[in-house]
Every structure is written in structure tokens, then in C-alpha cells.
Amino acid sequence: MIYVGIDWAEAHHDVHVLDEAGESLGHARVPEGIDGLGRIHELIGKHTDDSDSVVVGIETDRGLLVQGLVAAGYIVYALNPFSASQYRNRHAVSRAKSDPADAKLLADIVRTDRHNHRVIAGDSELAGAIKVLARAHKTLVWNRQRETSRLRSALREYYPAALEVFRNDLAHGDALAVLERAATPDEGRRLSLSAIRALLKRGGRQRYIDARADDIQKALRMPQLEQPATIVKAYATVSRAGVRSIRQLNAEIAQLEAEMIETTEQHPDAEILRSLPGLGPTLSARVLGEFGDDRTRYQDAKSRRNYAGTSPITRASGTKKIVMARFVRNDRLTDAIQLWAFSAIKTSPGARHYYDVRRRRGQSHSQALRAVGNRLVGILHGCIEHRTHYSESVAWQPIVNVAAA
Prior knowledge:
By secondary structure, this protein is of the alpha/beta class. The protein folds into 3 domains: 2-116, Nucleotidyltransferase, domain 5 (2-Layer Sandwich); 129-262, Helix Hairpins, CATH 1.10.287; 270-404, no CATH class. Helix content is 61%, strand content 10%. The protein is built from 18 helices and 7 strands. It has a 5-stranded mixed sheet. A two-stranded antiparallel ribbon has the order 6-7. It is globular and about 80 Å long. The relative contact order is 0.08.
């Protein structure tokens, strides 16, 4: 066996090769791209012709370089950068750091401690595509939230009436249509009912148009504190720019969501995921994309929960014991599971009972929701392992009986 550490960067990569005894067999700095991958193969090929005897450590699980290493048949470990940084102190107490030294460090990690780390998952191409679409979709949702927060902040400074009437969702078509036309308090006061109704229709509203138009007109004509005209004009320019950005993001999110859902429906696990309570088309895509579909990736339900970051961790020393939430985790997956659990307690009697029992024991809303999410991940694992759809009685009845006893 030979062990290869690759400290990757955008323009170049540092590579270090070790034998089983930890002796250096060679090192190099290679460029990004085909030439760099060819240099890596050449460096490895000097010492072995068997790709199965090559173990690679690298601090990422995606990208063209990683795909090239996997395609070559090497055993590739994706090492968490935080985990790798903890090994650094074991090798150098001076806290010195360099890219070539990090490459050697990564090779040493897979040489001595690879049993404590995870081989890159062999997810299908379809699962990879779902992950790409789901992450891009969520990123745009986060971007829209930031733009909405900026718009809300601007309205608070000069247009409190608009903020009051649209406070529930500034990204909604109602708010965008009205604010683009009436971005100042004076323009808002001068809007007639017929004009507001036309704007609401343009924004996509189809029901309760008259009632909503009446509410908007009354709110915009309420007395309010105002900034000087010059400042109001400046804020109005900022608000209109924000409205245009949010409208564009809405269109991009809708397009990505449609593509993501269509792609997810082609996956053989899609029906199983959709059978679980709280997992709609969007959340099921995000959960599937982040978990992947490699059947060998998770040894058991506990392993899947650990990866999801829902299972608690324990810190014990002597008579002191602390149980706390995991903070080093896949934030995108954690976010999806939190939303999943919140939806599940509204649709699943078992999930709701489990949540209520946790709350009666003194747990906070977040703690109880995290416990529900942890349980749902275990249920998902069982459904996928046995290729069965969700059953409310099988999933929750034993827990409900124990809690009620």
C-alpha cells in the first residue's frame, strides 16, 4: 500500500506520497486540471501499478480532481478540514503550517488513522445531480432572505406603513408589485383602489383581491413619521432595487425548484422519502441530495444520525456528564431536517406525541424538534434499508406506548 496526501487549492495542489512505514516516496506541486492529474498519476505510478493499493487523503469530497482520483480506482478519503487541523499539533508543536507539510500530514492520517475516517461515498450520478440542484436552490433562498432583510431594514427607516401591511412576506407578489409602483409614502397615499387591485393582479393574486386592496389602501394612508424628501427619494431608489432583485430571485428559485423536483422524481428512493410525513417535494430533494444514495455509506441508523448532526454528543469526566447538540455538522442537512421535523409534528400524530412528551419533560422547542428530527432520520434509514414505505403505526406506536405507560 502507498499513501497519498493532497493539499488542494484553486490554482495548484501539493502532493506527498508515503510508504507503509511512513517513509517519503516523493512530493510535488502540480497544476490544476488535466496536466496536474496526470502528474499525480505519474508520481504514484513510479511505485505501484495497482490502483487498489493507493489510498488518498484530501480535504474535500467533490470537484473535478476528486472525480478523477475516484475514476482512477484509488481509495479516496475526504478528511474534514477541522479534523485534519487537530492532527497538525500531533506532528508539529511549533504550530508551523505550509501546504507541502499539510500534504504530508494528510498522507500520514490515511496511513495510520484511516479506520476513523470515511471513504468518499459512491453516490449515483442522479443523486449527485439532485445534490447540486438542491444546494443551488437553497443558496438562492438564503440570498432572497438576505435581500428581504435589507428591504425590511430600508422600509423601517422611511416607510413604516408599507412595512406594517407587508410584514408577513416582503417577497410576496403583492408586496413587490405595490412597492415597485409606490416606493414612497406619498406615492402610497395616492394609490386608488382600482390601481391597487390592478397591481395585485399583476403580482399574481387571484383571490380576495378587493379585500386585500382595501386593507393595503387603509394601511398606506395611515399617519406616519416621515424623513425629509431628499432622503425619502434615496431610500425609494434603494427599495426599488431590492424589489427588482427579489423578483429576479423568485423567478430563479421557481425555475430551479421545478428542475430539482423533476430530477428527484426519477430517483428510485423518491417514493420512499415522499411517504414520510413532512417530506414534500422540495424537502425530500434536499434530504436525498445531502444523504446521498450509497447503500454502504451508513452502517446503521446511528451512523446516519451522526452524519445528520441530530444525535446528541456526551462529554463525561468523573462525576460530570453533559449532553449537548452537535455543532460540527452539515448545516444544509441540519436545516432541512429541522424544517422536516416542524412539518412532521403537524401531520403525524406519532411525531406530535413524541414532541409533546419532550416538551412536558422540560425541553425547549428547539430541543424537542431536534429529538423528533433524530427519530425521523432513524425511521428514514429503516425505510431505505428495507425498501418499504412509511407506516405510522410501525414508526411510532412502540414509543407512544412506552411514553404513555
